[in-house]
Amino acid sequence: MIFSKIRKVLGDIYLVFVLIFLYAPIATLVILSFNTSKSRNRWGGFTFDWYGELFKSSTIMSAFRNTLIIAFLSALIATIIGTIAAIGINNMRKLPKTAVMAVNNIPMLNADIVTGISLMLGFIAFGISLGFKTILISHITFNIPYVLLSVMPKLKQTERVTYEAALDLGATPLAAFFKVVFPDIFPGIISGFLLAFTMSLDDFIITYFTKGAGINTISTLVYSEVRRGIKPSLYALSTIIFGTVLILLIVSNIAQNKIKKNK
What we know:
- The chain has helices spanning 2-32, 49-56, 58-90, 94-109, 112-125, 132-157, 160-168, 173-202, 205-210, 218-226, 232-262.
- The chain has 263 residues and is mostly helical.
- The protein has a single domain, classed as MetI-like fold, CATH 1.10.3720.10.
- 25% of the residues are buried.
């Protein structure tokens, strides 16, 4: 009894340390975004000036806009393609399905630098000039596997009998899918979209190798600023992004819990 209590206490302490290591850098970044002083070692007082400077900087706002547009479009397109692909893979026989899923896992296990250089060489080989469209295509490419892995478990939980029953009752295949299958896999689709959006928002290496001159995302802008010294306005931007992603995750979890309760 005593040993089980000690084990539980040690487990809780370990969890607290893990959370501290994970979120202490983010908490530091948030605090620095409100620091009057540009020094990271001295607190000069509380201010919102860096947030005001953030919205006045055309360079940062352009990179922010590019990042959001690329993240949203790539996540949306990857979610559509990944969902359709997941439905097709789910209807395959066991051996082809296993082979396709193994191929799907390769981009996630592969090093980002290898993927980035490969995509860059592929674009150059086909005569495609590097720019916004190449970044978008690259992000769609590496987002699809994550969507597949989010949707596939939900498809396995659905019962094919209900879909076939809808067809027997006179529904068209498309209507039967949206009325019967789609509501069951919708939480997986949302999870896949949010995961793809976050992965795209966070990516640096693949974006760095596939972007052209004159276009920046937040990650590439921060990389270029490191050599000259990071501006506190970038701390403010990172804080806004972190808050936005956190709100999206909370809303998503609440929505999924409501769907489960309604079922």
